[in-house]
Write a structure and sequence with these properties.
single chain, alpha/beta, TIM Barrel, 9-stranded mixed β-sheet, 3-stranded antiparallel β-sheet, 16 helices, 12 strands, 31% helix, 14% strand, globular, binds pyridoxal-5'-phosphate, binds iron/sulfur cluster
């Protein structure tokens, strides 16, 4: 594959003797990542506005800047202010605005951490933070407080402690390697982590969250794919936010992973001025699916500090889903989620399709606005469930159903549970009650 004119310009500016095979070497890309204003301007042959130049310096003190030469080469210098690649990688002066309601750790990832490198929020799965550095620091990063801080790169011993926690907690069946970017670890180190996890019998699947297919596609090498293949099932979730990021190099990387049998998903963050448009989002999901990537989540931008200029109203996300559901293939539609401040986890939100209901009918509307009814059965004998699966008439026998105690809304719906309401522990009305009942 030949390099573009911009890539030729950047490579010769970095090193007159560099070759295109060096360009495709991920370690070369990392060594020459752009971290300062002068290099940025020189490599692209542009001049930023005075305000932007200032922001570049100030923002870098708070949260690092690093742009791979490859990602830099995707910037359209003719229209930088509106370019999605520029906006995701170069700080805006607005990044320095901390507004009311911003939080440094809105998702309480640090307090939900029972062991080093582990965030344990959901019953059966954990985040294992194995890296603290990224090839490109996204300006919209939710882990701004942590990522890029070279003093806190997880040590091998800390990762070992995290793995021990997973080993000691048999309910964990799904481990998400995250960070930072796990694919910035060396092949050997990653191979070691995956091998350690694979030795744990109750770990059924491993997931890796990485932005390398977007910002450093040459990191996806045949050696890396061979490692993932060896430890399958390993799912990879990547992070494309705009169809312009799906270049030929990105397509090659995705193709190698898919050919290696790695199931691929994508998480997109809804970003004002970048992808807050139904047409852009439709183009993105179609291009992803064409490249065998399933759109997984669309995230509402969270409340981390310095992200206020990226946030949209929730209605924008609903409008985007409204434009996708029914209008295109079901598997092109991501689940739109708000990651609950305070650590409640991801909460899906959707347009409303159930308009009304009575005792024997529901009224629904479809994507075209057609209103329709679904007639419910005249009689339905619910299968009584007391979670005693061995004596159940249904054919499904779950080996470990005795562990499947219903919680949350599922508990309110369960036949064998007497709970009638769920009340937050700090509820004032309840704490006023005499008996505490
Ligand atoms: C997102 C997330 C997960 C994984 O959630 P899924 O909905 O299974 O993708 C697990 N733990 C934490 C802390 C998360 O933020
Ligand atoms: S949970 Fe167990 S007991 Fe309940 S319906 Fe399912 S199989 Fe039967």
């Amino acid at each position: 594959m030949t390099l573009s004119a911009t890539q030729e310009q950047i490579i010769s500016c970095i090193d007159n003797n560099a070759t295109s095979s060096q360009w495709k070497d991920w370690k070369w890309q990392m060594r020459h990542s752009i971290k300062d204003l002068e290099t940025f301007e020189a490599l692209l042959d542009v001049k930023l506005s005075e305000k932007q130049r200032k922001a570049f310096g100030k923002a870098a003190e708070k949260f690092p800047i690093s742009i791979t030469p490859y990602y830099l080469s995707l910037i359209n210098t003719e229209d930088m202010e509106n370019d999605p690649v520029f906006l995701q990688s170069v700080p805006s002066p607005l990044e320095l605005n901390i507004v009311k309601g911003d939080m440094s750790d809105p998702l309480h990832e640090d307090s939900d951490s029972p062991a080093p490198c582990v965030t344990h929020r959901y019953p059966d799965r954990v985040l294992l933070l194995v890296s603290n550095v990224c090839p490109m620091y996204c300006r919209h990063c939710t882990r701004k407080r942590k990522v890029g801080d070279e003093d806190t790169i997880p040590k091998r011993s800390a990762i070992e402690q995290g793995i021990r926690y997973i080993r000691n907690n048999p309910q964990i069946r799904d481990v998400l390697l995250s960070g930072g970017d796990p694919f910035l670890l060396s092949d050997d180190y990653l191979d070691w982590i995956l091998s350690e996890l694979r030795k744990i019998e109750h770990v059924e699947i491993i997931r890796i969250g990485t932005r390398t297919p977007v910002v450093l596609p040459c990191r996806i090498t045949s050696d890396l794919v061979a490692i993932l293949k060896k430890h399958q099932p390993v799912w990879v979730n990547t992070h494309f936010n705009h169809s312009r990021e799906i270049t030929q190099s990105a397509r090659n990387a995705l193709g190698m992973l898919a050919d290696g049998g790695v199931p691929l998903g994508n998480q997109t963050v809804l970003l004002s001025g970048i992808n807050d448009c139904p047409r852009i989002m439709k183009a993105l999901v179609h291009k992803l699916v064409k490249n065998r990537v399933r759109p997984y989540y669309l995230y509402q931008c969270d409340l981390s500090e310095g992200l206020s200029h990226f946030r949209t109203p929730v209605g924008k996300g609903i409008e985007i889903l409204e434009s996708l559901i029914g209008h295109t293939s079901g598997f092109c539609v991501p689940t739109y989620v708000i990651d609950a401040p305070g650590g409640g986890g991801k909460i899906p939100v959707m347009p409303n399709y159930l308009i009304s209901w009575s005792t024997n009918k529901v009224v629904l509307r479809n994507y075209e606005g057609v209103i329709t009814t679904y007639k419910e059965p005249d009689s339905y004998e619910p299968t009584f469930c007391d979670r005693d699966c061995d004596s159940c008439d249904l054919l499904l026998k779950l080996e470990d159903a005795d562990e499947s105690k219903a919680i949350g809304i599922g508990q309110l719906l369960a036949d064998d549970d007497q709970t009638i309401s769920l009340v937050p522990s700090s509820n004032a009305r309840h704490s006023r009650r005499k008996s505490g009942a």
